Amino acid sequence: MTYTINEIFWSPQGEGMRVGQMSAFVRFTGCNLRCAMEPGPRSPGGFDCDTEFMSGRKMTAEEIMDEVRTACGLSHEYLELHGAWVVFTGGEPGLQVDKELVDLLHIGGFRCAIETNGSVCLDGLGLDWITVSPKVAEHAVRQLTADEVKYVRGYGQALPKPACHATHQLISPAFNGLTIDRKALDWCLQLIKEDPSWRLSVQMHKAWSVR
Known about the structure:
Strand order of the largest sheet: 5-1-2-6-7-8-9-10-13
Structural class: alpha/beta
Strand content: 25-35%
């Protein structure tokens, strides 16, 4: 079994409940949705994407493990004692991630998280953390449980009614490129004041100028 990988890098988690936590990001090539590169929360052709994930190279699970270890630079002893996070992202990583890869990384001392658009059911893979950021209509969401569910919101957009049942519900204000949309931020703050079951999540990696 091989996987098509765009890049592997070591960086702090930029958003969500685990923000600031160092993680090895494994970016998979390919997506099952139409996306555009223009800034903003939404484009006519699909949801906007500011990540290049079309190119890639074939790698085995063992090769991914080796490159993750190299990227994080942590010793075997450290990983045995403390572990570390791997985040599967994309594109849509749910198209490729399987139990073989998750099990191998677990053996290596890593906990496995995934950032998915929710269009693929991931049950049974043994993942340690699931982030669902729906990019499809709620009736088309196939991953119905998660640790966190996260939506981007622009000015004037109401809170969603998630099909995915998650421990944490987050909304993230839209950005204009690398700059946060102040009107969107104020709007999101008002939404969570009115419904405190939601939490604000800002894409801090853009403010930090890291991936």
